[in-house]
Amino acid sequence: MSEILVLGGDGFCGWPTALHLAAHEDNRVTIVDNLSRRRIDDELGAESLTPISTMQTRLEAWEEIAGKERAIGFAEIDIANDYYGILDLINRHGPDAIVHFAEQRSAPYSMKNPETAIYTSDNNEAGTTRVLTAIANSESKPHLVHLGTMGVYGYGHLGKTPIPEGYQEVTVPTDEGPKQSEILYPADPGSIYHMTKVVDQAKFAAYAKFYGLRITDLHQGIVWGTQTDQTKMDQRLINRFDYDGDYGTVLNRFLMQAAIKHPLTVYGTGGQTRAFINIQDTVRCIELAIKNPPEEGDRVAIHNQVTETYRVSELAELISGLTGVAIEYLPNPRAEAAENDLVVRHEHLEGFGLEPTTLADGLLEEVIQVARKYAHRADKSVIPPSSYWNGEVPAAKQLGDKVAGAV
Amino acid sequence: MSEILVLGGDGFCGWPTALHLAAHEDNRVTIVDNLSRRRIDDELGAESLTPISTMQTRLEAWEEIAGKERAIGFAEIDIANDYYGILDLINRHGPDAIVHFAEQRSAPYSMKNPETAIYTSDNNEAGTTRVLTAIANSESKPHLVHLGTMGVYGYGHLGKTPIPEGYQEVTVPTDEGPKQSEILYPADPGSIYHMTKVVDQAKFAAYAKFYGLRITDLHQGIVWGTQTDQTKMDQRLINRFDYDGDYGTVLNRFLMQAAIKHPLTVYGTGGQTRAFINIQDTVRCIELAIKNPPEEGDRVAIHNQVTETYRVSELAELISGLTGVAIEYLPNPRAEAAENDLVVRHEHLEGFGLEPTTLADGLLEEVIQVARKYAHRADKSVIPPSSYWNGEVPAAKQLGDKVAGAV
After folding, report:
1. Residue of A nearest to B170 (CA)
2. Distance (Å, rounded) from C-alpha B150 to C-alpha B274?
3. pLDDT band at B109, cuts 50/70/90?
4. Catalytic site residue from B141, B197, B243, B247
5. C-alpha to C-alpha distance for A211 and B387, rounded to whole angstroms
6. B122 contacts on A by Cβ (under 8 Å)
7. Which of B106, B351, B111 is nearest to B222 (CA)?
8. Which tens digit of pLDDT belongs to each residue from B159-205?
């Protein structure tokens, strides 16, 4: 029997992970969430394409389907503000593992304005601080499994070398000649949001060293897909599908545009290469990470939670091929390299048993079962980007308006 | 004319820096402080050996001595909680530079208990977040000069190689053969406090990259000495001298012990090598850093604010030699290597014109003018360590009690 807390269990990755873990008879799952993701939807005037239920309805539906034994607990705690709340929960449940998704996870939102930037920093940093402090001061000292991001690595600032799983071999000149060292891969985040995950890394390394905590950091690529085996079981269990300019990923934007027969808008040349993973694989990765903790005294275990890489233009071509919708190239609202290669190592989780779902295999179902099915709920005005960080706000804004107008 | 804000200008380094900068006719100085250091004194039941005045008395005394033209302004703002307060101040003053000392700076305090750990993280991280966000959103985009610490480097985890000024040359294996890169020196902090300075580094790199901010990070060694040219001018301008187990440095502990004729307590073998700088040099370094900003678009400028290194045992011998007081060796309350070499590069600030004050030259004055002069104010019970992070609290605590009892 494993007792597991899922922090941020109301979110896009958190909810299906909580269900996936709860589906296994060995686990007892409790979700901890302050429901902030729903508040931000309200703030942005956006909502999930898929009609998500309230937390209470979700939990009731799950208990109805899975039975009382498999029921998921819920604690509405703001982990960024309530140290004793989280400490008390840990001491009462004595969890074996804590899965930590409870962070503001949109890069564009974090770059929107001073308030969203400060909120993102404060929330993500103070949350991780309290979780780590609570674990260090708890009786059960649970294994922490954190959802990080591939975005901490940047895109190849060390040269043409595969991005390793967290730690980079380097040679350092010393008085005794060149010496090999394995160091935390030098970070190069692209937004305030990504920066907070770099900050998390610094904290994990420190707490693992000071208090012997067992910590796994999963550097995840862009997640695609919506449903998992559990979220499909009942309409009330359906997962989020975000398509707005802040929370929607490039793939979801394409899917939405295809569903409403709008040209797929590729920013720049589409030569940006990104790493991807399917949501069904995400939930399996979390399970595998929980089952394979580092030992006390080990450094932080870092796994790249990624199964394949694609150029944005290739992705557009894939969806264009499946749907017959054309591609339109537009100036890029982000300050980033126009083109990049991205070679990422991802052997750890596959070594634990992950069998990847590929975009080529899974995309068609996503087009038909989600994007087309719920296209009538789409608010076309929220699809264009609304955060700009290339220093050309007016031009990009105009462009955003043009895109919105064109939809 | 330079307009300068000194955040944390009521503290041990901040106050003499504010005076030093204000003494120059080209500068206009405003202190920003929430007076938290005085609150922590109350919390710990400790106080400065030297009788420091209230902020109001300090400012009045300075204006009396230096004249209305040189008067220092004061804004009581908690930068960790008041973004608009700091933004408004920047926009009203249009400073050329902001000196950022406004952080909880005791490593033992940060390791004391969950509350002091969380306070240290929250305060230091949220303060830096707001200062950076305010600068990025200000009109004048002032140069930020931050007081970092040598403690971000750790002690030689990359092997026997001098610690560089912020950036380390490494060779990375790539598909095109070995490639040279200069990376931020891989951090290895020794406490939550030091970890917050690692977090600061991550934020500085990000904000310099995202918003082109001009940032200088000064990695300071252990500061010794109390008075500067300005703090000596009037009894009401006197600087702090901390000798309690949390805020007192090893050198101040020795000075106090010598003054009250108690054996100098060396933890462990005293083989720990540490980097030092005199307070008079600190204030000059800040001035030199302000005068030598990086360009917009440059990476963060990092200077090691250090002038010499000593083993703790050598330091004890130096003071024992000056005062005739014996040395006593005790178990170490910190989790750290018993012995270490420390070779630190410190060429940047000397290149800007710093002429170092050495311990061998300045210590005697410190013994006579400060430690002996104010020894009658000493509270002997606060000298032993009260934070332990070697996992042997009971033994170390017993030891602390023994030390306290022996005084």
Report:
1. A172
2. 9
3. very high
4. B197
5. 15
6. 126, 129
7. B106
8. 888 999 999 999 999 999 999 999 999 999 999 999 999 999 999 99
CB-based burial of residue B238 (10 Å sphere; 0-12 exposed, 13-18 middle, 19+ buried)?
A: buried
Known catalytic residue: B243? no
Q: What is the pLDDT of residue B405?
A: 30
pLDDT at B338: 73
In a domain? residue A40: yes
Which secondary-structure segment (H or E) carries A39? helix A36-44
Q: Is B232 a catalytic residue?
A: no
- A332 to chain B, minimum CA–CA distance in Å? 16
CB environment A56-91: b (16+ within 10 A), e (fewer): eebbebbeeebeeebbbbbbebbbbebbebbbebbe
Residues of A in contact with B117 (CB under 8 A): 129, 133
CA A117 → CA A114, A196, A376, B132, distances in Å? 5, 10, 33, 11
Say which of B133, B181, B183 has its CB closest to residue A118. Answer: B133
Q: Do B159 and A181 touch (CB under 8 A)?
A: yes
Q: Half-sphere exposure of A158 toward its Cβ, with a 13 Å CA cutoff?
A: 30
Burial class (CB within 10 angstroms; exposed 0-12, middle 13-18, buried 19+) of B167: middle
Quick one: angle between helices A312-323 and A250-259, nearest 10? 20
Burial of B140 (0-12, 13-18, 19+ CB in 10 A): middle
Structural domain for A184, as ranges: 2-242+275-308+341-360
Could B121 and A118 be called an inter-chain contact, meaning their C-beta atoms sit closer than 8 Å?
no
Q: What is the pLDDT of residue B333?
A: 73
> For A129, which of B118, B130, B157 is closest by C-beta distance?
B118
The Cα B94–Cα A186 span in angstroms is: 35
User: Are A187 and B179 an interchain contact pair (Cβ–Cβ within 8 Å)?
Assistant: no
Domain CATH for A152? 3.40.50.720
Can you say how many angstroms the Cα of residue B110 is from the centroid of all Cα atoms in its chain?
14
Single out the residue of A9, A27, A25, A10 nearest to residue A96, CA to CA: A27
Q: Residue B117 and residue B109: Cα distance in Å, rounded? A: 8
Give a yes or no: residue A202 inside a domain: yes
A257, part of any domain: no
Q: Where are the beta strands (DSSP E) in A239-384?
A: 264-267, 273-278, 301-305, 308-311, 327-330
**What's the structural domain count of chain B?**
1
Nearest CA-CA partner of B374 in B275, B243, B284, B231: B243
Q: Among all residues of chain B, which has the CA nearest to that of A182?
A: B158
Closest approach of chain A CAs to the CA of B197, in angstroms? 10
Q: Determine the straight-line distance between the first and last CA of chain A, rounded to whole angstroms.
A: 51
Q: What is the CA radius of gyration of chain B?
A: 21
How remote is the C-alpha of A40 from its chain's centroid?
A: 16
Answer yes or no: is the ipTM higher than 0.90: yes
- Position A126 in a domain: yes
Structure tokens at A255: 């899917």
- The overall longest dimension of chain A from CA atoms, in Å, is 68
> Catalytic: which of A112, A141, A197, A203?
A197
Measure the CA dihedral A135/A136/A140/A144, to 10°: 40
Place of tokens 């040349």: A269
Q: Do A114 and B83 touch (CB under 8 A)?
A: yes
